[in-house]
Amino acid sequence: MKIAQGLETWVKTRLPTSLRDRLHQSKYRYIMRKTKPIELIVHIGAHYAEDRFFYEELGAETVLWIEADPGTFKTLKSTLNEHPKNTTNHLMECALVSSHDDTVLEFYKFNGDGASSSVYRASERLRETFEHVHETGEVLKLKSKTLTSILEAHNIDIKNAENSMLVVDVQGHEMAVLEGATQAISEFKFCKCEVSRIEIYTGGAQFCDVDDYFRSKQFKLSSHPYWRVPKHGDVLYTNIKDPK
Q1: pLDDT confidence band for 13 (50 / 70 / 90)
Q2: Most Cβ neighbours (<10 Å): which of 12, 28, 112, 194?
């Protein structure tokens, strides 16, 4: 079995990028590269802007990075300030995105680089599945903003972009983010969203909730067949009606 897996990996690493993307379990990168340019990208849960090079490859004219944790945002800002200047305009916002403006929410810090920090507590399943991930005991109180308010503050009109993508990577808080931007969601061409089919965060959104929401907004799951949706990972939805 290990020999077969090793051979498969060896073969895939020697294939052209486009073919590797098509063979990957998730078709996210294949779809994005096929559709580019993606002029506008809004990334909620930015962390350290690890995807900035890929977004630039996609021809993004504007990327809005939104990060809730003030400490993580400080590193994000430094990273983007030092990033080589090019035709992509990188904007930043330190905000906890939720369903309503000006609501104070508790934000639980996790160990490591803070990528797992959330408004939700760790579930027993998270502790069993990711033994190295745990809460630090530090809890921040952060005031929320809706995506609608943030877009208005940055004078971003989604309709001005031929192709646009929303990225939601918020550790169980996905439904609150989406509910705070109902009109804006329908104007995006794509939405990449972290989902869980198991309870990673206590009380956090489940894949079935997220999927029902997107289907109600006339988006279709395009990165995976339903039977291959990961227990915890990213999926891509495509707007099946003209968002213009």
Answers
A1: low
A2: 194
Q: Which two tokens stand for residue 224?
A: 């995976």
Determine the topology of domain 25-239 in CATH: Rossmann fold (3.40.50)
Give the span between the Cα atoms of 21 and 18, in whole angstroms. 5
Quote the Cα angle for 144-39-79, to 5°: 60
Q: Residue 116 carries which side chain, given as an amino acid letter?
A: S
Cβ contact 15:23 at 8 Å: yes
Whole-angstrom Cα distance, residue 4 to residue 74? 44
Is 201:123 a contact under the CB 8 Å cutoff?
Answer: yes
What token pair was written down for 10?
A: 């060896």
Q: What is the dihedral of CA 220, 225, 226, 229, to 10 degrees?
A: -100
Structural contact between residues 176 and 51, judged by C-beta atoms closer than 8 angstroms:
no
Q: Is it the case that residue 182 has pLDDT exceeding 90?
A: no
Q: Which residues contact 11 (CB under 8 A, 6 or more apart)?
A: none
pLDDT 10s digits, 194-222 = 999 999 999 999 999 999 999 999 999 99
pLDDT of 89 over the 80 cut: yes
Lowest pLDDT segment from 16-25, 84-93, 98-107, 178-187: 16-25
Question: What are the Cα distances from residue 225, in Å, to 22, 23, 230?
Answer: 13, 13, 10
Is 66 in contact with 95 (CB distance < 8 Å)? yes
Measured in whole angstroms, the distance separating CA 34 from the mean position of its chain's CA atoms is: 19
Which stretches of the chain are DSSP H helices?
2-13, 17-23, 28-35, 52-57, 70-82, 124-129, 147-153, 174-179, 182-185, 207-216
